[in-house]
Automatic annotation (TrEMBL):
UniProt keywords, alphabetically: Cell membrane, Membrane, Transmembrane, Transmembrane helix
Protein name: RND family transporter
One Pfam assignment: MMPL
Originating organism: Limnobacter profundi
Mode of membrane association: Multi-pass membrane protein
Location(s), subcellular: Cell membrane
PANTHER family, A to Z: MEMBRANE PROTEIN MJ1562-RELATED (PTHR33406), SSD DOMAIN-CONTAINING PROTEIN (PTHR33406:SF10)
Ranges for domain SSD: 260-385
């Protein structure tokens, strides 16, 4: 039995500092937990439009520079008022539409001058008569609900050009169009999408839905609102994960003390992380809502290693304090290396130039940093007082003295025959992974909002709009800049007209509108509606006259006529559709630089989605290089062996490639929601390899044969790795039941990565080490 004095004389500085002042260190951590728990209660779940887009991408920069002239083409919500009986030309329906319009007008965050419905003054009709052009509001001030007024409304709608835009093609619904402000003018703060979505539900959908009326809502703000609503269920999944972990921890350790201590320290890490995020002025969004669970999972992973090591030391006859000190001494280098690798791995997400992912990177890195204190320091201190139950220690000794078939089987991978077989399987899997990596697609692969399930209320609403309106909700906007008063010049309009004809030939494009269309319509109207005059006129005076009666609120040109958008309506915003549209637009711009007009990409939700896809595609490779490069350097610094680096990193890389193949098989694209999964999976998976190789190295230095050393490693560290991999996999698998599709996708992918990283650590790592480590060759 090692004496306490002997233990202390061998102790490194970190151990002496921590264990010599146990009560003080634990008191300080208790105070920190109380303070940060209070901070955590102040944390808010929110989202920002600008935080979810790549603000430094050329397309988005162009959009933000011209945002004042694109107020109706950026962040927009469409409220569709559908009648279940008859059509919209009904007094009761039109009164309901008026009430919906009035209610929507007063919802904070709505850009009121730009909103549109049949009841707003900016929705007008135009008609060609013998005396020239006539026009007015679609629903005039004289409307009184009688049959004559309704007949007039029907005629005005048919003359308005709004059929397929604000009015359904089947005349069974109309849209209330709500452009949004990024800043809530009533509070001066960023628009709270959760509150906005809740008001839409309470004041519009819940109030007006009936057996005659169906309210449908689409738009970015509603997607985010639904995501935040669904993301709150993460608390439920977190609770389920804690219960699963509690049961499996007790089954693993058979010790109530160590089970509760491990859980308490891991939950403390989550509390510290959330509290620090609030203290830093940050919050949680739908994408970073899952990070606390990952922090909890990493904490449990390291806690299991520590508790297992303490149980071993107690089994060797050490008292509780010395067992905790010796366990800390044996694991703090490997644990610190693993956690620092995790932190830097997560930090590599910062290379992705999308604010919401950078916030996720910060949240994950902060979480890993606090685990160093809560699980590597606090847990051994707690266990130094409580120790592991004697029954649990006896059970551990009984298990290790017995013959475990699983450990004997796995130890075979540290011998020539099974090692060769494992590497042959790994090569076959590598081919599958390379195929998957070559075929994985960037961006969304489904219609509607792929963040939500296909049968979600939002996607059903979106499908209704797509099926019943000529202009879809997927809008790609090309911005045209020219000199002052240049938007109405013939050369400019001719270039715009040619661009529209070109882009409308691209598969996936429904239609497009611009000032050129309106000018051609007015010229035709001046000629008694003769279609042969539906063309641009070279006479500048004629062209000038075509915009004299136009309303700036139509959004087809700026007040000084130096800017105009070309609005392209797409069938969907799938990755392939966006690539085709962007390629066609860029090709046109490259071939048609006349100097009269500058065409710039791109605004609209589809334009921003295209920019996001480009950023994700570029960042994917860069992030992988950084995450594997940083982790490899840290592993090398810990072990000072290139062979060790290969043994630990290669199984992780194989898992990443297989994850790509799984994404192809499941129809999941690489996008904002799924790109972080690889970094998160690598960050957690590297822990397995570091702990196993660290313990294997320890036994090899004692002179054990390679296979025997690995067998002993499996009985201690390997057992903990297998348990952790299974526990984390089962816990994350519960996300598959989330109403949020991207959370379910992340759950499936992380479950796969947790399990395969575990398999890689206990199967492929020893097989590689057998051939790469000279001590393996001598075995």
């Amino acid at each position: 039995m090692t004496s306490p004095d002997s233990t202390k004389t061998k102790a490194p500085l970190a151990e002496r500092l921590i264990f010599s002042k146990r009560p003080l260190v634990m008191l300080l951590m208790l105070i920190a937990t109380i303070v940060l728990a209070w901070q955590a209660t102040q944390l808010k779940v929110a989202a920002s439009f600008e935080k979810m887009i790549p603000t430094n991408h050329e397309y988005v920069v162009n959009f933000l520079e011209n945002r004042a002239d694109l107020t109706s083409l950026g962040n927009v919500v469409r409220v569709t008022v559908q009648t279940k009986e008859g059509d919209i030309f009904d007094a009761e329906y039109l009164e309901t539409l008026k009430q919906v319009t009035d209610k929507a007008f007063y919802i904070p965050g709505v850009n009121r001058p730009e909103m549109a419905s049949l009841w707003t003054a900016n929705t007008r009709w135009t008609s060609v008569t013998e005396e020239g052009l006539e026009g007015g509001q679609v629903i005039p001030a004289t409307y009184n609900g009688d049959a004559e007024s309704i007949a007039q409304v029907r005629q005005n709608v048919e003359l308005s050009g709004q059929i397929g835009r604000l009015v359904g093609n089947d005349f069974k619904s109309t849209i209330v169009y709500l452009p949004l402000l990024e800043i809530n003018p009533e509070t001066g703060n960023r628009l709270d999408y959760k509150e906005f979505s809740e008001r839409i539900e309470a004041e519009l959908r819940n109030e007006f839905n009936s057996d005659k009326i169906e309210i449908r809502v689409t738009g970015f703000a509603k997607i985010v609102g639904d995501l935040i609503e669904g993301a709150t269920q993460v608390v439920m999944f977190f609770g389920i994960a804690v219960l699963i972990t509690l049961v499996m921890l007790f089954f693993y350790s058979r010790s109530v003390k160590s089970t509760l201590a491990t859980l308490a320290c891991s939950i403390t890490a989550v509390i510290w992380q959330l509290g620090l995020l609030n203290a830093m002025g940050m919050g949680l969004d739908p994408y970073s809502m899952l990070v606390p669970f990952l922090v909890f999972a990493i904490g449990v992973s390291h806690g299991v290693q520590i508790v297992g090591a303490i149980a071993h030391k107690q089994g060797e006859g050490h008292n509780r304090l010395d067992s905790a000190r010796l366990a800390f001494r044996g694991l703090y280098i490997a644990g610190l290396t693993a956690l620092v690798s995790d932190g830097f791995g997560f930090a590599t997400l910062m290379v992705i130039d999308i604010p919401v992912i950078r916030d996720l990177a910060i949240a994950a890195s902060v979480g890993v940093a606090v685990i160093i204190l809560t699980n590597l320091v606090l847990l051994p201190l707690i266990m130094s007082y409580t120790g592991v139950d004697e029954k649990a220690v006896a059970k551990l000794q009984q298990d290790e003295s017995g013959s475990n078939k699983l450990w004997h089987f796995l130890a075979g991978f540290a011998q020539a025959k099974m090692a060769k077989g494992a590497l042959a399987v790994a090569l076959a899997l590598l081919a599958v992974g390379l195929w998957g990596n070559a075929n994985v697609q960037i961006g969304d692969l489904d219609k509607g909002a792929p963040e939500l399930r296909a049968d979600s209320r939002y996607n059903l609403d979106n499908a209704y709009v797509t099926d019943n309106y000529s202009t879809s909700t997927d809008v790609f906007v090309v911005m045209v800049e020219t000199e002052m008063d240049g938007c109405i010049k013939y050369n400019t309009l001719a270039a715009v007209d040619l661009f529209q004809w070109t882009i409308e030939q691209v598969p996936g494009v429904q239609s497009s509108i611009s000032l050129a269309d309106r000018s051609k319509f007015v010229i035709s109207a001046y000629s008694e509606g003769d279609l042969k005059w539906n063309a641009l006129n070279r006479n500048q005076f004629v062209l000038n006259g075509t915009i004299s009666g136009m309303n700036l609120s139509d959004g087809l040109f700026s007040s000084d006529c130096s800017f105009m958008p070309i609005i392209v309506f797409l069938e969907d915003h799938k990755a392939d559709t966006l690539k085709r549209v962007v390629a066609a637009a860029e090709d046109f711009i490259a071939k048609n630089d006349t100097g009269d007009a500058v065409f710039k990409l791109a605004a609209g939700n589809a334009g921003i989605e295209a920019a996001t896809n480009e950023v994700v595609e570029r960042a994917q490779t860069e992030m992988l290089i950084w995450v594997y490069g940083v982790v490899a350097i840290l592993v090398w610094l810990a072990f000072r062996s290139v062979r060790t680096v290969i043994c630990i990193i290669a199984p992780l890389a194989l898992t990443s490639l297989l994850c790509s193949a799984l994404m192809v098989a499941l129809g999941i694209g690489v996008k904002v929601a799924t790109l972080p999964v690889i970094a998160l999976g690598v960050g957690i998976g590297v822990d397995y390899g570091i702990y196993i190789y660290g313990k294997l190295e320890e036994y090899l230095k004692e002179g054990m044969p390679f296979a025997d050393a690995y067998f002993e490693t499996l009985k201690s560290t390997g057992k903990a790795v297998v348990f952790t991999g299974l526990t984390l996999g089962i816990g994350v698998a519960t996300w598959a039941f989330s109403p949020i599709k991207f959370q379910a996708d992340m759950g499936l992918l992380l479950t796969f990565m947790f399990l395969w990283n575990m398999v890689g650590a206990v199967v492929f790592l020893p097989a590689l080490a057998y051939f790469l480590d000279r001590r393996g060759e001598k075995a």
